[in-house]
Amino acid sequence: MKVCFVGIGSIAKRHIRNLSEICNERGIELQIDAFRRSNSVSADNLQQINCIYTSAEELPADYDVIFLTNPTEYHADMLLKLHDHAKHYFIEKPVASLNTVDILKEIPYREDSVYYVACPLRYTHVIQYLKQEINIEAVNSIRCISSSYLPDWRPGQDYRETYSAHKDLGGGVAIDLIHEWDYITYLFGMPSAVKSFLGKVSNLEIDSDDYAIYIAKYDNMIAELHLDYFGHKSVRTVEIYTDEDTLVGDLIAGTVTYLKSGKIINFPADRDLYQKRELEYFLDMISKNGNCSNDISNAVKILKLTQGIIE
Asked: What Gene Ontology molecular function terms does this protein carry (predicted)?
């Protein structure tokens, strides 16, 4: 299998590590190239990168997969520019920024190609448990929160210089933490109405939104969602209020707790594993011509949902 990574940041490095392990386990010969602005790459990736390209004109046109792991602002433009260079595409979330999402309409999509947008939290033990065990008809409301401190996100990097800090680069907590809306719609579908409040209230030195609050209406339930960049103690939970009990899924601790009955389910550590499971699913999908569970159309709907827009 011949693949190319556009951008070699921390996310790409994790994907390269997981992809290498999967291909080794499955006996798949793997060639990894990189497309980036410069031809330098960190020493820990040198042994896995075959060729580094800096020009689209020089880039081969026979890749099985191109992984778009560059900053969000450039996803759509790169997909358009490199569309003829690969059979399938794995696009990091979000699919595009709000400034560039319309570029996606210009792409001549192929029916036999997969355009998969990453949605890794779906593959965590907690979300998979809830997907299998929840009776949606019995849910009255849900309340989700993802709160963390932006300066702690990327150790060794000045948070003020990351894309998250800059709205024009696709930054902002609503976009960065699009995972929450993804798993909410994965579990419960799209809401019929949503109210949103986005802005900046903290002393973080950023020009992007540091909070996003939503209230969404479904036919038979209500959803509340709180996202922020300024929580000094990381919290990532989903509370589900049903007719029989209240469940709390903790995606950091890897637990599901039933508050009334006292039942607690503990899952094993999941960080690299759930992203590895997502890659396994993607490889199965492109090899077996399976249906894409999060295509560009669905990813655009979720992107717009972060702005309180329902289509």
From this structure: nucleotide binding
Q: What share of the chain is helix, strand, coil (3-state, %, to 5)?
A: 35, 25, 35
Chain length of the chain: 311
Co-location of 128 and 258 in the same domain: yes
Residues 148 and 219 in one domain: yes
Residue 301 and residue 177 in one domain: yes
Same domain, 127 and 80: no
Give the C-alpha separation, 70 to 67, whole Å: 9
The answer to whether residue 178 sits within a structural domain is: yes
Same domain for 205 and 258:
yes
pTM of the shown model: 0.93
Q: How far is CA 232 from the centre of its chain?
A: 22
CA 36, CA 55: separation in Å to the nearest integer?
A: 8
Q: What is the DSSP letter of 153?
A: T
Output the tens digit of pLDDT for each of the chain's 311 residues: 999 999 988 899 999 999 999 999 999 999 999 998 776 665 555 678 999 999 999 999 999 999 999 988 899 999 999 999 999 999 999 999 888 999 999 999 999 999 999 999 999 999 999 999 999 999 999 999 999 999 999 999 999 999 899 988 888 999 999 999 999 999 999 999 999 999 999 999 999 999 999 999 999 999 999 999 999 999 999 999 999 999 999 999 999 999 999 999 999 887 779 999 999 999 999 998 778 989 999 999 999 999 999 97
Collapsing DSSP to helix, strand or coil, 79 comes out as: helix
Tracing tokens 């358009």 back to the chain, one arrives at 80
* Structural domain range at position 61: 2-113
